[in-house]
Design goal:
Helix content: 40-55%
Number of helices: 14
CATH class of the largest domain: Alpha Beta
Structural class: alpha/beta
Number of strands: 14
CATH superfamily of the largest domain: Vaccinia Virus protein VP39
Strand content: 15-25%
Oligomer: single chain
CATH topology of the largest domain: Rossmann fold
Order of helices and strands: HEHHHHHHEHEHEEHEHEHEEEEEEHHE
CATH architecture of the largest domain: 3-Layer(aba) Sandwich
């Protein structure tokens, strides 16, 4: 009997090993079939012969930055301002402010509130009509209406986000400086680097910063273009925030000269389009406006005053992404209505490789189009040496589109695997694609370019119309394809 059992166990183990080997073999050929099915004819766009002049790790689609460091003058000035203030519980309050600003939502519109209230009223009215609560049985019709109104308002408070306008007094301005200067500086530097890398000849002379806050845009622009910019116009509704930004420019003391000349602060945005600027930036400011109407009017005003580039930056959340897409649609629709003024029209410069509706926003489970940037925070005891900012950005450019490169944008972290690379991209035809790139199927150049790319870069690749990768991912879930790797969505907000 023991011999029989050992023989049976041995036979079972052999069958398990046989089937496991067969499964691994089928999975191997299946994965190779996937790469061929998704990418039959992509190739490196080497029209400018860049591969003969630069290594793959420096291909022209590389746009990511390494760790962004703050200017030493900013670090010293910010430390002087924060330590000189009388703010108590600085560490806890800066963390609370960061969390609050990250989770902040747009103000609810009156139409949305009325619609939600009507829906709740119908539901509660039916519930109260069929209810046997003693409290409701003894009330007359007028009292029942009052009770219904009370319950609707109570339910509405739990479902509508209570947006409040932040009033930046001296104390809150110091907290904002300590909590957000490094992260805001990193996001702005990444947006500026996009322009510098793709349009190296651009040298702005004038800059408008809407919602200038502590002055992150001023310092980042000076770091990128130096003395090229002769005038900085900073607009912020808070007089205390403007005063702190001015002090930071003087190293924390009014007795010193400005470290960056030509900076002017104002509390109100001039509406007249006569004065235009080469570069206009609005970083983390759209959510400070009380309604959609105010956001649209502000975007229209900023776009009228733009002569070169308009840069908008928001949190890398669904709320931030939706506000940027709202601004994008506002500008594109406005230009369509005024198509007779060809010289004043514009186009999307980054990050979208197309003017079509955002495919991420159109998905059933909407996810934001966001990116990350490593940076050096202000050296306070509670901050680590390196932090990461997750942000969304939009760059609009005046004039007709001159850049003929319609390279796809990598929208998720690149997944490097043995002998193949996964790239999730937004393509010029307005679709999201998942490319599995191998050196055997697509050539060494494309494989090496993809392997050296990062989240947010552009992949210098041409995808022909015959390529099945031009089919949206949702339509590729057939027998010859495997689902998109779901673990990549962990990096989303």
């Amino acid at each position: 009997m023991p011999c029989f059992r050992r023989a049976l166990a041995s036979l079972g183990a052999k069958r398990v090993r046989f089937f496991a080997g067969r499964v691994r073999s089928e999975a191997y050929y299946f994965s190779r079939g996937l790469a061929a099915a998704l990418n039959q004819s992509p190739q490196v766009d080497n029209t400018s012969d860049f591969l003969q002049r630069v290594p793959h790790r420096k291909h022209p689609g590389i746009l990511h930055l390494k760790r962004v460091t703050l200017p030493q003058a900013v670090v010293e000035g910010a430390q002087a301002l924060v330590y000189r203030s009388n703010v108590t519980q600085l560490e806890d309050r800066t963390k609370d402010l960061s969390h609050y600003l990250w989770s902040r939502k747009r103000p609810a519109e009156d139409g949305d509130i009325r619609g939600r209230a009507n829906e709740l009223e119908k539901r509660l009215r039916l519930k109260m009509a069929s209810s046997r609560e003693p409290v409701l049985q003894d009330k007359n019709e007028e009292a029942l209406e009052e009770e219904l109104k009370r319950r609707v308002m109570a339910a509405l408070r739990g479902k509508i986000y209570h947006w409040q306008q932040l009033m930046y007094d001296k104390e809150l301005s110091v907290l904002y400086l300590a909590a957000r200067f490094g992260s805001g500086y990193a996001a702005v530097m990444r947006a500026f680097h996009e322009i510098q890398k793709r349009v190296p000849d651009f040298a702005p002379k004038t800059l408008l910063d809407f919602g200038s806050g502590a002055g992150t845009v001023i310092w980042a622009a000076h770091e990128c273009w130096g003395s090229s910019i002769r005038e900085y116009m900073c607009v912020d509704s808070s007089a205390e925030m403007n005063e702190m930004s001015e002090l930071l420019l003087r190293g924390g003391s009014n007795s010193q000269e400005k470290l960056i000349p030509g900076v002017h602060h104002r509390q109100f945005l001039p509406v007249s389009p006569k004065v235009r600027y080469d570069l206009i930036v609005s970083a983390y400011s759209l959510n400070e406006l009380p309604s959609q109407r105010d956001r649209v009017q502000t975007i229209e005003t900023l776009w009228r005053k733009t002569d070169g580039y308009l840069i908008l930056i928001e949190n890398g959340t669904k709320e931030g992404h939706h506000m940027l897409m709202e601004a994008r649609d506002t500008i594109l629709n406005q230009d369509d209505d005024r198509s007779r003024q060809k010289a004043r029209t514009g186009h999307v410069f980054a990050p979208c490789p197309h003017p079509l509706p955002c495919p991420l926003k159109a998905k059933k489970e909407s996810v934001p189009c966001n990116f990350i940037q490593a940076f050096q925070p202000l050296p306070f005891s509670w901050n680590p040496t390196t932090m990461w900012e997750k942000f969304s950005f939009l760059i609009m450019r005046r004039g007709p589109k001159e850049d003929i490169e319609e390279w796809p944008r990598i929208t998720l972290p690149v997944q490097r695997r043995p002998r193949h690379v996964h790239c999730h991209m937004c393509c010029s035809d307005g679709t999201l694609q998942h490319m599995v790139i191998t050196a055997h199927k697509h050539g060494r150049d494309l494989y090496r370019c993809a392997r050296n790319s990062e989240w947010g870069d552009r992949l210098p690749v041409i995808i022909t119309s015959k390529d099945s990768a031009s089919t949206p991912i949702d339509e590729q879930q057939g027998e010859d394809c495997v689902p998109v790797v779901q673990s990549a969505d962990v990096h989303r907000a």
